[in-house]
Design a protein that fits this description.
Largest sheet: 9 strands, mixed
Distance between the termini: 76 Å
CATH superfamily: (Glycosyl)asparaginase
Number of domains: 1
Radius of gyration: 23 Å
CATH class: Alpha Beta
Number of helices: 9
Order of helices and strands: HEHHEEHEHHEEEEEHHHEEEE
Length: 354
């Protein structure tokens, strides 16, 4: 009898252990879903002051930010990937003349529009980027195609456009990117440049001079966390008004304008690209989280408010970490930004003290 009881106890113990082991395996399965998801977007940072904004224009910006973030949030809520949410949100911003990306891209010194974009997958650490394209309607789609359908990370100019055609990416006539607002902005800067030259012919004039350029970095971007715990980020831009020599900023540079890693966070940058490249801002935030084990907010604040500032750089980032925490940090007068979490709580802000 005692032997029978002992065998029964041992058998029950083995069953419990087996069940416990299965539960542990299930909990670690990468296919398991979590209800912790969300995304954050930006529409550029810079000298964005309420006194310079009409009520109707401010409402237009807020409405477009809401449209973009709700579209991306729906992708996540329906079980879609973080990368799909990123490109969905950015497509809407690229198709709006309000933002310096796609349709609303600023003009170069020569009166053309040169577009840059990048994406990164936090699960695989795969990435894609394009620079200097002039006929691709949605640059973020081409960056995604480079990541998914090529052996490369970055393509540029005519080669990137050839690849876009082969991939069936929508091509448009360069006139598609013309907007009166952006063209007038270029003319204003060219006039300032001319007057500055007339005043002192011996002093070189830089198109990055704050007295000439208006310091509105209209880049758009998105960072997202999906229900599978995967992070992704993307950034798209027309660059800086009056840029010369086929200048390329940080937006298509992985680690500067865009970075995503499931071990830490996903980041999209907007600002004076030369400084974001030198500081590798997006990657630096993720690295600080991994190596120093600080929070996303603490990392973002130190990088944007101290390290970037000390270099002389201005701008900001939006970011989300692997737990759904968000940082929207910037050191300019404003940044178009929005966040939406798993519960559907929506935050839209423009100015510094909102």
């Amino acid at each position: 009898m005692n032997k029978w009881i002992a065998c029964l106890i041992i058998g029950l113990s083995l069953i419990c252990c087996d069940t416990s082991s299965k539960e542990k395996l299930i909990s670690k399965s990468p296919a398991s879903k979590s209800e912790s998801f969300g995304l954050v977007i930006h529409g550029g940072a810079g000298t964005i002051l309420k006194e310079n904004m009409t009520d109707s224009l401010e409402m237009a910006y807020r409405d477009k930010l809401e449209e973009a973030i709700r579209a991306g949030h729906k992708v996540l809520a329906d079980g879609g990937t973080s990368m799909k949410a990123v490109t969905t949100s950015i497509n809407i911003l690229e198709n709006s003349p309000l933002f310096n990306a796609g349709k609303g891209a600023v003009f170069t010194h020569e009166g053309t529009n040169e577009l840059d974009a990048s994406v990164m997958d936090g699960h695989t650490l795969n990435a894609g980027a394009i620079a200097g394209v002039t006929t691709v309607k949605n640059p973020i789609d081409l960056a995604l195609a480079v990541m998914n359908n090529s052996e490369h990370v970055m393509l540029s100019a005519k080669g990137a456009e050839k690849f876009a055609t082969e991939q069936g990416i929508e091509i448009v006539d360069p006139s598609y990117f013309y907007t009166d607002r952006r063209f007038k902005s270029l003319q204003s800067i060219l006039e300032k440049e001319k007057k500055a030259l007339e005043k002192n012919q011996s002093t070189p004039i830089s198109y990055l001079d704050p007295f000439i350029n208006d310091y509105k970095y209209g880049t758009v971007g998105c960072a997202a966390l999906d229900k599978f715990g995967n992070l992704a980020a993307g950034t798209s831009t027309g660059g800086m008004t009056n840029k010369k020599y086929n200048r390329i900023g940080d937006a298509p540079i992985i680690g500067a304008g865009t970075y995503a890693n499931n071990a830490s966070c996903a980041v999209s940058s907007t600002g004076w690209g030369e400084y974001f490249i030198r500081g590798m801002v997006a990657h630096d935030i993720a690295a600080m989280m991994e190596y120093k084990e600080v929070t996303l907010q603490d990392a973002a604040q130190e990088v944007i408010q101290q390290k970037l500032k000390n270099l002389g750089g201005t701008g900001g980032i939006v970011s989300i970490d692997k737990n759904g925490n968000v940082a929207m940090e910037f050191n300019t007068a404003g940044m178009y930004r929005a966040h939406m979490n798993a519960e559907g709580k929506l935050i839209i802000k423009i100015y510094e003290n909102e």
